[in-house]
Amino acid sequence: MSAFEHTPVLLEEVLEQLDPTAGGVYADVTLGGGGHAKAILEHSSPDGRLIGTDRDSSALEAAGVALCGFGERATLRKARISELVAVLASLQIDKLDGVLADLGVSAVHLDRAERGFSFAKDGPIDMRMDPTEGETALELIGRSDAEELANLIYRYGEEHRSRKIARSLRRAYEEGELETTGDLRHAVHRAVGGRRGRIDPATKTFQALRIAVNDELGELQALLEQAPHLLRLGGVVAVISFHSLEDRMVKHAFRDSEQLSPLTKRPIVASERERNDNPRSRSAKLRAARRVEVAA
User: Fold this and answer.
1) Which helix (H) or strand (E) holds 191?
2) What is the mean pLDDT of the chain?
3) How far apart are CA 269 and CA 13, in angstroms?
4) 3-state DSSP call for residue 232?
5) Mean pLDDT, to the nearest integer, of 47-69?
6) Which of 35, 108, 132, 165 has the CA that lies 20 to 30 A from 16?
7) Cα-atom radius of gyration of the chain, to the nearest Å?
8) How does residue 119 score in pLDDT terms, banded at 50, 70 and 90?
């Protein structure tokens, strides 16, 4: 089993919306371990094609193993979501029949302490999807003042206690007490108290820092702007989001676009069985839209 292998969320629902067929060309811009991509290739047999991108080299390596049996039908590239246009141009692909984005951080990232995404296992305060480029979450904290941090935590984490938390983070950083994800969690608890319910008080702060470090909303916005131009008529864009900021962006983009027609009025969520089998699916929301002709 690949170290990156994990269960793809809402798999049957994604296939229902994308409806992969023979001869189609599809893109999975958050390839991960290749679970969704493999299913798309299977359902578009014998000659459907899949372009898979991810910014994490370890994900690409694992997906390459998972998809090796499909030969030239699967083309994998290291790239951000926002670089999809350039990737397709390099492959001389003009239009897609479908594009999928499964947003957020994978269970594999959360389980790897050295990636710094989670306080469940102590590790460096990193949080980069691509650990070879960009600034870490600790570097972001170090270069931001308390007001900048508070605004970031409020905007991306929807955390109403952001000012107290930001001051505590800056204090911990300046006093040399911010080295690991455990330290980061402790600094949040020091500001707002420890865990009392099901959700740890540090969760929203971790989310906010991760989103900022990886420019996740900017990457999503790029996809939503590019999708109508990349899809052929009848092509489908499907997005799985995991928090309200993402879902709201997708909902508004699909609703307001003249070139996209939403396929569902409400987001599709996981069945009770899937939620029980795969806890990651509990917060997943799938929205899809079809490329349509613009009225004259």
Assistant:
1) helix 181-192
2) 93
3) 9
4) strand
5) 95
6) 108
7) 20
8) confident
CA distance 6 to 87: 25
The identity of residue 119, as a single letter, is F
Distance in angstroms (rounded) separating the CA atoms of residues 98 and 40: 10
Cα–Cα distance between 191 and 188 in angstroms, integer?
5
User: Which token pair is 196?
Assistant: 């009392």
Q: Output the six-digit token pair for 90.
A: 């390099």
Report CA-CA distances (Å) from 104 to 168, 225, 273, 285: 26, 19, 22, 12
* Residue 2, pLDDT score: 44
Nearest residue to 61 (alpha-carbon basis) of 113, 100, 117, 4: 4
DSSP state of 132: T
Which amino acid belongs to residue 44?
S
3-state secondary structure the chain: CCCCCCCCCCHHHHHHHHCCCCCCEEEECCCCCCHHHHHHHHHCCCCCEEEEEECCHHHHHHHHHHCHHHHHHEEEEECCHHHHHHHHHHCCCCCEEEEEEECCCCHHHHHCHHHCCCCCCCCECCCCCCCCCCCCHHHHHHHCCHHHHHHHHHHHHCCCCHHHHHHHHHHHHHCCCCCEHHHHHHHHHHHHCCCCCCCCCCHHHHHHHHHHHHCHHHHHHHHHHHHHHHEEEEEEEEEEECCHHHHHHHHHHHHHCCCEEECCCCCECCCHHHHHHCHHHHHCEEEEEEECCCCC
- For residue 283, give the 3-state DSSP assignment: helix
Under 8 Å between Cβ of 230 and 96: yes
Instruction: With beta carbons less than 8 A apart as the criterion, state whether 111 and 279 touch.
Output: no
With tokens 């839209």, the residue in question is 289
Q: What is the pLDDT, as a whole number, of residue 120?
A: 83
